[in-house]
Protein 1
Amino acid sequence: MVLPSRFFKNFYAEKVNEIGCVYDELRLPCCGPLRCAPLFCRRAERTLIVKKHMKRNSILLTALLVIVVATLLVYGVFSASGTPPSDLSEMSGGASPGAASEIGSTGSSQAPSDLPSESSGGASGTVAPGETRISFLACPDNIIHPSVYYDAIRKAAQADGSTPVYTSLATGKYDFADMYEYVADAIRDADISYVNVETLIGGNDNKISGYPMFNTPEQAGEQLIALGFDIYNLAHNHMLDSNSDEYLINCNRFFESRGLTTLGYYKDQADVSNIKIIEHEGVKIAFLAYTYSTNGLSLQAGSSTVIPYISESLITQQMELAKAQADLVFVSMHWGDEDRYEVNAQQRSTAQLLVDLGADVIIGMHPHVIQEMKWVEREDGGRCLLTYSLGNFISGMQDGFNMLGGMLAFDIVRSADGTCSIESPQFLPVVTHYTKETAVSGDDTGHRNYKIYPLEMYTEELAAQHGVQIWDQTHTPTLVGGAFTVENLKRTVKTYIPAEFLADWLQ
Ligand SMILES: [Zn+2]
C-alpha cells in the first residue's frame, strides 16, 4: 500500500516535531528549500526517525529486548510443558508478547524493515484477525492545457541541453515527470488509484490541441501510466472534443491496450450492462462514471457509442447491476458549476439518488474548485462517502482557487465476517504551482515550471512567486480570504472540508 493511515500521519508529525526537520540532514532532492512534509517523503523519513529513536532510546530498547527475549524463552519452556500462556504476564513482570507487539506498533523500537505495513494500517494502525485493508487514492481533473505541454517540451530540452522545439507537437520530446514528482509516491503506493483524464489522449496522428477542444499528447498519457494509476476516468465534458467519438475511442484504446481500466466509454447499448469491476484481495469494487454534459458536442451520425450522461434511468439500471456483482460501488461524477464553491441542485439530487441506490463512495469533480465533502447515511444502515468536487489536479487555469485541489484517500476494509466498509477517509490538499514567463505561441499563456505540491509542502515564498499573483493584479482574488497565500489556501480547505477529513496540521 501505503497511504499512511491517520495513525501514521500523527506519529510522523509528532516525531518530526520532536526531532526537527529531517530533510536538512537527508538532503532529499524533493525537499530543497521546502519545509518538512512528513506525509510525502515518508520512506526515508521513517527510516531516519526510527534510527534516531533507536539511538536515543537504546538503553530502554536493550532493556525491553532482554525482557521480551526472556519472556519468549519462558513462553517456549512453559508452552512445551503445557502451562497456559495466560500465566506469562505475571511471570515476566508484565512484558507479555502482547506488550511487545504494542511497542512495535509505535515504530520506535523496531528496525525499519519490521515496521508494520501502512496498508495494514487504518485508524488503529493494526489489522484485526481476518480483516483485509486496501488503500485507495483518487486524483481529480488532469487538464493538459498548451502551457503544460509546452513546459514539458522545455523541461525535456533542458534535460538534454537542446533547444526546445514547440512546433512539432506530435513527435516532440516531453518531460511530464517533474510535474508529478511530489505526488508520485502517494499514487504508486496506493493499492488502487484513480485519475480523471479530463483531456483525452486522442492520438498523436491528430492535431495536438488545447482549450476548448483538447487533444493531449500521448506522452502525457504515458506519464499517467508511469505514475501507476489503475483506473482512468473518461466520463466528462470533453468526451466528444473531436466533435465525434474518435478521440474517446482512441483514448480508451490507449489505456485498455495496456491492460488498464477505463471508465465511461461504452461501444454500444449492450456494453452499458458491462460493469467495470476491480477485484483486489478478494474484494470486488464496481466503478460507474457519469457526466452532466459534453459541452454541446454530439456523437456523429451512425455511431453506436453510448455516452453516460446523468440520467435516473441509466444510473438506476447500472447501480442495480453493480450492487449485484460487487461488494462496494464507487461512482465517478462529473457535475457542478465551474468556478463555484457552492454545490448545485443537480449535484444534490443526483447524489441523493446514488445514496438511495446504495453507492459507497462518490468521487466528484469538474467545478475546478473544491466543494463540500461528507458522510451520508443510507437507509440500509450503511453510509456513503460523498465528495462533490476535489478541484483540479493539474491544469493551466488562471485563478487562485483553480490551483487548489485534493487527493481523496481512504481504506477499503473487509472485516472477518465479510462486511466491507470505507474507513479513514482523508482529503489531501494539493497546489498546482507555475511561474509566469514568455508565451511561445498564440495558445500559450507562458506559464512554466508546473509542479503539483502537497499543500503541506507549499511555502509562502513559493506562493509569492506563483504566476497567479500577476493575474490577481487585474482580477479579483478567488481564495477564501482573498490573496494567494498559504494561509488562504489552508483557509479555503478548512472552509469546505470538515476537520474529520483533514490531517492534524490543518486542524
Ligand atoms: Zn470537466
Protein 2
Amino acid sequence: MKEREPVLYSACLLGIGCAHDGRHRAHRLPPGLPGDSVRAVPVCPEQLGGLPTPRAPAEIVGGSGRDVLSGEARVVSRRGADVSRAFLRGAAETIRWANAAGCTRAVMAPGSPSCGPRWHYDGSFSGRRAEGPGVTVAALEAAGIAVRGPEEEREAAGKKDCR
Ligand code: SF4
C-alpha cells in the first residue's frame, strides 16, 4: 500500500472544537479534502501556545505575523491583553510538531491571527482584513514548510487529478 503524505492541518478545519468560541471550522474545508493520498496531522497553535478554549478572540495589531516574529507587531485579545508570547510559543511548538510528524507542507485556516495563510484581521476588531500571514504561518514558511489555504489546496488537488 502506498504511504500517505503527512500534511499539517489546522485542527479546527478537521472538526476539532479548538477555535476561540469552542467550535470547529470544518465547514471551511472544501469537499474531498484532505484526500486519500494525505494523512492529515491536526494542530492548533493557539492551544499549543497555552491559551484556553474557549478564549477571547485576538488580532494582530501593527503588521502581519512576520512582524510579530520580528517583534515589530503584537497580538492583542479583544479584552486588550497582549497575547503575543503565547502566539510565538504556539508557532515554535507547531514547527516541532510538524517536524516530528514529517510534514513538509501545511493547509491552514484562513483569516486566523495564527493560521491565516494570506490575510488576517487588522487589529480593529471591526471585520477589516489586512494582507499577510498569521504568526504560525510566517514561522512555518521561515522554517521551509509550504502553506496553502483550503481553497488553494483544493485547486492543487484538482489539477493533480487531471494529469
Ligand atoms: S489557532 Fe488555528 S487551528 Fe487553532 S482554532 Fe485558530 S485557526 Fe484553528
